[in-house]
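The instructor's notes for this session suggest beginning with a concrete chain rather than abstract definitions. Hand out the sequence below and ask the class to guess, before any prediction is shown, which regions might be ordered.
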Amino acid sequence: MTEERAAVAVSDIRKSYGDLHAVDGVSFTVAEGEFFGILGPNGAGKTTTLEIIEGLRKPDSGDVRLLGENPWPRNSKLLPRIGVQLQASSFFEKLTAKEQLQTFGSLYGVSAATAASYLELVGLTDKANEQENKLSGGQRQRLSIACALVHDPDIVFLDEPTAALDPQARRNLWDVLREIQKRGKTIVYTTHYLDEAEILCDRVAIMDNGRILAMDPPAVLVRGLDAPTHVTLQKGALSLEDAEALPGVEETHENEVSLSISTRRPAEVLSTLAERGALDGLQVRTATLEDVFLNLTGREYRA
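After discussion, reveal the predicted structure:
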């Protein structure tokens, strides 16, 4: 993919604050229609990278092309074509959800009826006449995304849109994000939830300490790790000695409630367990993006 055809093209951008290298030589491209995730723990440099791409912050060095344009200094040509949802959302006081959208839409010449229609996209039709301050955290996040989409931008930037949401609200928001991509939008988003990115993203860049450690589709990153599969059995389903003797087993561990087996030949192990009738309560855990992060950094993932 050439930079001319990319929705986003970032080349060796850097941003420092004193001795802190917040962004330290980051490069990547994002294709039109792609769902691209920038992942990493708090302080990894995700938000600063996004703000540089959006034209909210000037890089110390490097080059950014957003829809073929330079976003800095603030590029008025880009404003109608991008939607931005920041970590901290601000709304107009005392306006209802519908009025919030209509007000944002009016800034771009969007009709009141068209603006209000975005409530359906984010599942807030029944909250149209509720004041923003009476909405739940998840509902406010969805309203914030609707405001970023109300002028029908080509590319949407979302900075940790599911942060601080409960599991139910997070999964509801996943459906919204999938629907946005179905509409042909390019999505660039940051998160520190690796499990979420593994489900939603076409490609991910894993960041830490201002640098990209790895970048690829989630499944490719996980396959490249060559990590063992972990099979967990209820204690008593198989003795520790019998588990250690199974073909393909690399490591075993037993505690008060379960027996765990590590293997790189899961099909063989599972077939043998089935023959022995030891499948009751069985759980299988394959490698995840969190395992990739641990392998890259040598330490536990921290949110």
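Then share the key points. The chain has two domains: 3-217, 228-286. The CA atoms of residues 52 and 96 lie 32 Å apart.
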